[in-house]
Amino acid sequence: MTEKISIQPDYETKDETKAGNYFVSNYPPFSFWNEQDVPCVSSLLNSPSSGSAPLGIYYHVPFCRKRCHFCYFKVYTDKNSNDVRKYLASTIKELQSYSESNYVKGRKPKFVYFGGGTPSYLSAQQLEDLTDQMKAVLPWDDAEEVTFECEPGTLSEKKLEAIKKFGVTRLSLGVENFSDHILEINGRAHRSKEVFSAYKFAKELGFENINIDLIAGMLDETDENWTECVEQVKELSPDCVTIYQMEVPFNTGIFKSMKEGGKLTAPVADWPTKRRWVNQAYEALEKVGYTVTSAYTAVKNPEATKFVYRDRLWSGADMIGLGVSSFGHLGGIHYQNLTNIDHYCDTIESKKTPIRRALLTNDEERFIRELILQWKLGRVNQKYFNDKFGVNISERYYTVLSEWKGRGDLSEENEELVLSRSALLKVDTLLHSLFLPRHRNAERYV
Ligand SMILES: C[S@@+](CC[C@H](N)C(=O)[O-])C[C@H]1O[C@@H](n2cnc3c(N)ncnc32)[C@H](O)[C@@H]1O
Ligand code: SF4
């Protein structure tokens, strides 16, 4: 990154944004995943599946036009068309090997998710060829949802037509903000004009579910601008709005600049401000008919607009992770692929497993994993956990839940335990108290 990132002076509140990840995306924490458990995945793949868990596919496209200053995903901005071709071919070989395994043979994916990086970085032709090949290996005709993440500036009408044609039902646009100044100083490649044209084409093509991602607390965000962003979203009126609170993990451009300037506090809004902004957006969206369905999402019509990938994954589905640094989850085993693209491709070419680390979870860990992920929806169903894991949540977590209730963070509605709005907005900080003692205070993102 050659551009200079605007850094404001360190400031002090009780809850500044410090470097690191706050978002809890899985359990047990990644630092417990290891090389020793990698052979467990091969053993599982050699045996037939019990057939009870639905199957999904996550496909990672690690290419972007530009690396955003806040981004912590595995992305490359310097690959040429030969590198891309080689990568796509390797992922097909990887899928082929899953489809031939006893565990996957004969099963059909219920959901497919193209994430990144930027799936929409690929050309219409590359996407058509890739998805034809994927379907030939493992047909998608039973999929309830196919999600595709896009950076708005990469979307032409022709590309969107191709995306619609190969079966995408949920189009996710990484809008992040509507101010060109904010987009620019945060290192985004797109500008607001491209958001409006991409959104218009997507609407005309009739995608079932269009989602817009926003980040609360980008560099230089202000109350005034955020209010404007919320108004813009309301005007576009997408089926789903996802709002993340800005994090500044250690592998971001922003952190690099902080380190160079000897700063401990990230030059973005503090946590109370970010929560206030998300709350403001949710309240405004609720006023025009949206429903808040998780800590990060509001949807216009909850009956019609589902998020199958999230809901399946958070209730224990199997998911094949394809591509460099992809995460997967099969038969209670977590795994992650190699994180260097050349290493990944070469390993596939030499017919070895591209998995770098895994974790064979036990029943208790699987229970806690589902519980913490489902808390992010704002409510958990006690009967579900009793039936599936034989655990009475109220008894098992009596002390923690009493504390949450005492603070007004939690209430009970029939079978369900329900988080208050303010608790939901900081849910990622609450979840650690549900971890097993050995997993608390662990390095979560390694
Ligand atoms: C893989 S990106 C989406 C697709 C595409 N690469 C793009 O950015 O337009 C997934 C989403 O993660 C969110 N995100 C990325 N870095 C973040 C950070 N540091 N803090 C909070 N959210 C972040 C952004 O909202 C982004 O749209
Ligand atoms: S476009 Fe998306 S994946 Fe790529 S660097 Fe930016 S946030 Fe990360």
Can you tell me about this structure?
The protein is α/β, with parallel strands linked by helices and 446 residues long. It folds into two domains: 116 residues, Orthogonal Bundle (Arc Repressor Mutant, subunit A), CATH 1.10.10; 281 residues, Alpha-Beta Horseshoe (pyruvate-formate lyase- activating enzyme). The protein starts with 37 loop residues before the first helix and ends in a 16-residue tail after the last helix. The N terminus is likely disordered. Iron/sulfur cluster binds next to loops.
Task: Give the helix/strand layout.
Blueprint: H1 38-46, E1 55-61, H2 81-99, E2 111-116, H3 124-137, E3 145-150, H4 157-165, E4 170-176, H5 180-185, H6 192-205, E5 209-216, H7 223-236, E6 240-245, H8 253-260, H9 271-287, E7 291-292, E8 297-299, H10 308-313, E9 318-322, E10 327-330, E11 333-337, H11 341-349, E12 355-360, H12 363-375, E13 379-381, H13 382-389, H14 393-396, H15 398-406, E14 410-413, E15 416-419, H16 421-425, H17 427-430
Helix pairs in contact: 2-3, 2-11, 3-4, 4-6, 7-9
Bound molecules: S-adenosylmethionine and iron/sulfur cluster (SF4).
What is the multimeric organization of the chains shown?
single chain
Q: How many β-strand stretches? A: 15
Give the helix/strand class. alpha/beta
| Distance separating the two termini | 23 Å
Overall mean pLDDT score?
94
CATH architecture descriptor name of the largest domain: Alpha-Beta Horseshoe
